[in-house]
Design brief:
about 220 residues, alpha/beta, Rossmann fold, 7 helices, about 20% strand
Length: about 220
């Protein structure tokens, strides 16, 4: 569901240009240097930022960048980061733009982990190519991931999950983790957001996988 437009969002973003970007081409190849961390995580479709802000706090020695195309949602995520109690800002940044441009912002082999959390399932067949796990995106991810980099995906949507498994396998990725009920066990290493909690309370299983691109020498 698309968030209602926040009138304050654009002025707020304008005031926080050192923290929220809309076309950070100047940071390409420099994210780890900018955030002074050796490990770089990228969440695509960060929404209101519950996951990224939680993980950035849980792993303060790692860098976190979130991409969100909806201006209002992205502004909410960034403002939550700034206004949270004892904010830790130096290890995270936000990009408000379409992820189709990500190769303009990240260089080859720059990102260690890509997170896809509860992405839009685009259920109509004609829209499947817009899925964040579709072939065109997987090729971009392959390019920007490090040699040992990988993708972590979670979703409540069974059809998207099953299709995505095929996308990964058809595009020369190896599945290193796979679960059709990820939260059946405790995973203290992975933040649970309010959005995810709602599905869990309804008894909806959370599907999860990790996929690593095959590197042919």
């Amino acid at each position: 569901m698309r968030m209602r437009k926040k009138k304050w969002a654009e002025p707020w973003i304008e005031e926080h240009r050192d923290f929220v970007y809309q076309n950070p081409v100047e940071n390409k190849g420099k994210w780890k240097q900018l955030l002074q961390r050796e490990t770089l995580h990228l969440e695509i479709g960060t929404g209101k930022g519950g996951y990224l802000n939680g993980m950035a706090k849980l792993y303060p020695n790692e860098a976190w960048v979130g991409i969100e195309k909806d201006i209002s949602a992205g502004a909410v995520a960034a403002r939550h980061a700034v206004e949270e109690e004892n904010p830790l800002l130096e290890n995270k940044r936000f990009i408000i733009a379409n992820a189709e441009q990500l190769q303009e912002w990240f260089t080859t082999g720059e990102v260690d982990v890509i997170h896809l959390n509860f992405s839009d399932p685009w259920p109509k067949k004609g829209n499947h190519k817009r899925r964040l796990s579709s072939a065109k995106f997987l090729e971009m991810y392959r390019d920007i991931l490090t040699e040992d980099g990988y993708i972590r995906m979670k979703t409540d949507n069974k059809d998207l999950f099953e299709d995505s498994v095929l996308y990964f396998l058809q595009n020369d990725f190896t599945l290193t983790e796979f679960s059709v009920d990820f939260r059946r066990k405790d995973h203290a290493e992975d933040v649970i957001t309010e959005y995810e909690t709602r599905f869990m309370e309804l008894g909806q299983p959370i599907y999860q996988l990790c996929a690593k691109p095959c590197r042919h020498k």
